[in-house]
Amino acid sequence: MKKIVTRSLSLLAVLLSAAAVAEPQLYETGPSEESSFVRFVNATDTEVTIATAKGKEKVLGTKPDARVTRFFKIKSGAKLSATIQGSGAHVAVDVVGKPWEFITVAVLPSGAKQIKTSLLRETPSEFSGTRASLALLNLDAKCSSANLSIVEKNATASYEVKPLAMQRHLTGSDKQPGAINCSGSATAVDLSGLESGSRYSLFLLGVNNARQAFVINDDKK
Amino acid sequence: MSLLLAGLTVLVIGDSHMATRDYLITTLHDGLMQQGAKVYSYGACGTLSGDWMKTTKAECGTAFRLDNGPLRERRAEVAIMKPLPDLLAAHHPDLIVVVNGDTMASYKAATLPKPWIRDQVRTLTDGIKASGARCIWVGPAWGNEGGKNGKNFPRVKEMSEFLADNVSPCIYIDSLKMSKPGEWGTLPDDGQHFGKDGYQAWGSAITSQIISSDILKKIKP
């Protein structure tokens, strides 16, 4: 009995000591809802127009900076429906994202005059404030394996990406030239603008039987 | 008194751990002052990192302390927080200390919302970078498992590791190394906020880390 009383008093003393500090009101931690992120990339040789139920139509051109939208935040699990209009053809696409998933909707040529879409999904786990993050997205159906090596002092980031797929690695932000290899054919890429802490996508496209590669900052607003 | 800290102006900003008397706004502020620094402390309960770049209302109160002046607390109804640019213009700090982590850890969610946290952190670190001030980021402490916030050891460890990789250019101070899990007692049904002894231990440990930090050697003329 004496032990029980002693323990109770000790517990009371701990509680009183803790309660001697004024209590703040508690609050939920983290975001109010889980999100996903969607962007569109034009991998055709003509302009395409993206229309969604909400927001203005977006026209994606054929110059590198004009080919890719920024990532748009949508509620995780909710459906985003879009209609994509190319030259003389259109296609509808529905996108539903998992929590914190990044989805790239690639608009691709289909035969001579049609267009089609392909979704490339990524739920990134690695983030760094001191290294650059670079994804390689192979949107050239004729490149069976897009290979890229970025050599650093102590490590090499190696990419081997099948058509309509992507890989991402952390890498240094050293200014250096690079090349994507597809079956012995090299396409030069400019990696000189990578900054530590930022995230990028390197797109490989096959347009009019010619390959082109360009880098986009994924953080652009 | 620290020869490295003496004469420097330090701005401390943080979440609920900095927004109540006898919390870090008392113990860390006192600790830094005792080392000879001029200290300005601002706490805003429930705030996310990115909130510091705008004028917003703190969910559960604010507090501030200007050097050796008295602590002022504001209830939630009138708790408008001053954004970092205003604080920089008012105090011209040599060093900014950020105390933030718990509010973004999503303790009850299945996964850590890394993209969202990164966005919050970058919003603040970009502001700090632009100011030219040096920066130290103090991560979350262990606390205790359970409570209304659902705090748990695996998630706080994951959160701390994520912050360590992503708060550049700030130097990260890992609070988890300052105690064992559950060592510092927390308020009843809370898990996150400590009693007086806990905040005393945490404030002293942070002060010790700061005065031993390499960053002080860089910013001291």
Account of the protein in words:
The complex is a heterodimer of chains A (about 220) and B (about 220). With about 220 residues, chain A is mostly beta strands. Helices cover about 10% and strands about 50% of the residues of chain A. Chain A contains two helices and 16 strands. In chain A, strands 4-1-7-8 form a four-stranded mixed sheet, with no helix packed on it. In chain A, about 30% of the residues are buried. Chain B starts with 8 loop residues before the first strand and ends with a helix. In chain B, the strands form two sheets. A seven-stranded mixed sheet of chain B has the order 5-4-2-1-7-8-9, with helices on both faces. Chain B is α/β, with parallel strands linked by helices and about 220 residues long. Chain B has six helices and nine strands; from the N terminus they run βαβββββαβαβαβαα. Chains A and B meet through helix 1 of A and helix 3, helix 4 and helix 5 of B.
Q: Name the shape of chain A in a single word.
A: flat
What is the helical fraction of chain B, as a range of percent?
25-40%
For the record, the CATH class of the largest domain in chain A is: Mainly Beta
Strand portion of chain A, in percent?
over 45%
Task: Report the count of strand segments of chain A.
Answer: 16
Q: Please describe the biggest sheet of chain A, giving its number of strands, its sense, and whether it closes into a barrel.
A: 4 strands, mixed
Cα-atom radius of gyration of chain A = 25 Å
Q: What is the percentage of strand-forming residues of chain B?
A: 15-25%
Q: How many domain regions of chain A?
A: 2
Low-confidence segments of chain B, given as residue ranges, are: none
Given helix and strand content, the structural type of chain A is mainly beta
Number of helices of chain B: 6
Largest sheet of chain B: 7 strands, mixed
